[in-house]
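Troubleshooting: if your tokenizer reports a length mismatch, compare your output against this known-good record of 70 residues.
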Amino acid sequence: MDKMIDFTVFCLESYKRAHNLTGKDALKVFDDYKVFDYIKSFYDVLHSTGQEYIVKDIDMYIHSRKGIKH
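Known-good structure output:
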């Protein structure tokens, strides 16, 4: 389980840096669009990819969720 937590933090930090966000703002995006659930569901695939791919994948996931009632 610790590996998943470490990876989730890595994803959050990578996203934050890529979009020049504060930690609080990045966390809000992840909460609003349920990105943590997405990372958990696709951990097996995502953890074997690179940082740039992960950020792009999260961006695509968020884009696909826009307009969905939270």
